[in-house]
Amino acid sequence: MSARTLGGMNISEKILAMASGEDYVKPGEIVEAKVDMAMVNEITGPLAIQTFKRIGLESVWDNQRIVLVLDHQVPADSVKSAELHKIMRNFAREQNIQFLYDIGDGGICHQVMVERGHVRPGELIVGADSHTCTYGALGAFATGIGSTEMAAVFATGRLWLKVPSTIRIYVAGKFKDFVTPKDLILDVIGRIKSDGAIYKAVEFTGPTISDMSISGRLTLCNMTVEMGAKTGIIEPDEKTLQYVRERTSKPFKVVKSDSDAQYERTLKFNVDELEPMVACPHSVDNVKPVKDVEGVEVNQAFLGSCTNGRLEDLELAARILKGRHVKRGVRLLVTPASSKVYLQALQKGLLEIFVKSGAYVCNPTCGACFGGHMGLLAAGEVCVSSSNRNFVGRMGSPEAEIYLASPATVAASAIEGKITDPRRFLEGIAK
Amino acid sequence: MRISGRAVIFGDHVNTDVIIPSKYLTSLDPNELAKHAMEGIDPEFPEKAKAGVIIVAGRNFGCGSSREQAPIALKYAGTRCIIAESFARIFYRNAINIGLPVLEAADISSKVEEGDVLTVILEEGKILNETKNEVIEANKLPDFILEIIRDGGLIEHLIKVMRR
Q1: Chain A within 8 Å of B103 (Cβ-Cβ)?
Q2: Which of A173, A423, B63, B136 is deepest in the core (most CB within 10 A)?
């Protein structure tokens, strides 16, 4: 049977077909695929390295296709962390892996992967971190795996994948001021629910996505794992190609969905009337408009993470914070996603705005989002966070509460000391 | 492969942060991780699991991070098998890859109570509730996954394949 009589393929199916040397694949089929890039961080890497050594091979399948990033607990916050970092550095040396992003050079692994040109359209990328799905924003098929599986990838460069069915999310309309892609993805997760896309790919399309910056697209794809998805993905366009070509000279193949591609279902969203949204404790799908929870007092506000720690996010927060001060008794942590973002924020004067507003500017790291170091919560405390998870205990005490929101809502809430609709700051703001 | 044990029941959306909180991830020692298995949701679990248990759970078991320390902690605490209505995909793969059997059974939560003695016949995708004298149907695992589990995990399987 020719591909034509079977119907077209969408971008995810095409990339998996290409990676497994097939002309045609369909959802449910299990393929053995060749990996283009593999990434580990210091939480998942040491276990992968230890397991790789158990296989007994001298060298990895391809040391040009492996990226090692130190990001979760950097600089080392304990001797145990320092030991994990050492395992990563030693492995890079032993295997002659040049893409080791140590502190001062890298940042959060997902930001490093995209901004240093390790993600290219049409590629199959695996990372031992659940938010690997972020890279779909650049038209790659990227998914999270565990450490043992990564050890097998280090050995063979291959892994088995079930071709997922795809939910298409069509988005139209224009965001109002201070309403962001984060509010859109929270709205989407609130409707699809946290297990609504398990094993599936989520493909974003429509005029709003075309208009959206790469940074916003990364935010959307980043959070698809919070509805269980295998990946989030967006067809590459001119914006994507420009972003990628500025960062790598390696060749790649642009893959797009066929016009008769198959989807499990299509959901339509319109952002014209979308309001700032918030995911309430303790589930990311417990989503409400910010106005419904305005007034909830917060102890900490966190601006950072692989979801919302990029320059655009910091700029948005700085617009609100400029000339204002964080409420006494509230702590605002600002954690740029990478050293590059940190430098840009420095050069643009954003860090000065943050420090003058009373914020604490941290080094690039996963930090408070991961709940390992740099801003843990005590029992009974409340945090409004631009990150991606509000599970019980995620940011410290199991008796703390986390509200997930956009950088604008985080900044506004830090100033007021309670959850606040950022649109209250629209008039007279420094633009 | 037949696996027996008493059922320990959990609800929906048990995430990896409660299975093994982030603060313990600096340890590479599986027995150390096991001491904190399920600490975020049931601190008594390691004690309960010592005799060898089968976890029975609702939807989306293991959602959240890719930390393989989650299934490792459960396995070394004494978990012999996990049966859930559905799994988060990374957890599902991780469990298989470390040789911890996982099975999906649509209505398992309504058919098993805490402490019931279960026997899982993995190849057939059948679960016997010995306490209630009932047979529960589960989704059968594909052969290549059964082979990975029988070999004791992905790495053991890979070593065997490479020797061929």
Answers
A1: no
A2: B63
- Containing domain of residue B156, as a range? 2-163
Residue A430 clears pLDDT 60, i.e. is over it: no
A389 touches chain B (CB under 8 A): yes
Mean pLDDT of B3-32: 96
CATH number corresponding to A10-250+260-268? 3.30.499.10
- Tell me whether residues B65 and A283 touch, CB distance under 8 A: no
CATH of domain A277-425: 3.30.499.10
Backbone angles phi, psi at A46, to 5 degrees: -55, -40
Where do the structural domains in chain A lie, given as residue ranges?
A: 10-250+260-268, 277-425
Closest CA to A228 of A257, A203, A196: A196
Number of H helices, E strands in chain B: 8, 7
B:119-148 residues touching chain A, CB 8 A cutoff: 142, 144
A-B Cβ pairs (cutoff 8 Å, strict): 119
B28: contact with A, CB 8 A cutoff: yes
What are the tens digits of pLDDT across the range A288-308?
A: 999 999 999 999 999 999 999
Grade residue A4 by pLDDT with cuts at 50, 70 and 90: very low
pLDDT digits (tens, 9 = 90+) for B60-92: 999 999 999 999 999 999 999 999 999 999 999
The answer to whether B87 contacts A84, with C-beta atoms less than 8 Å apart, is no
Residue in the structure block whose two tokens are 């391809």: A62
Rounded to two decimals, the pTM is: 0.96
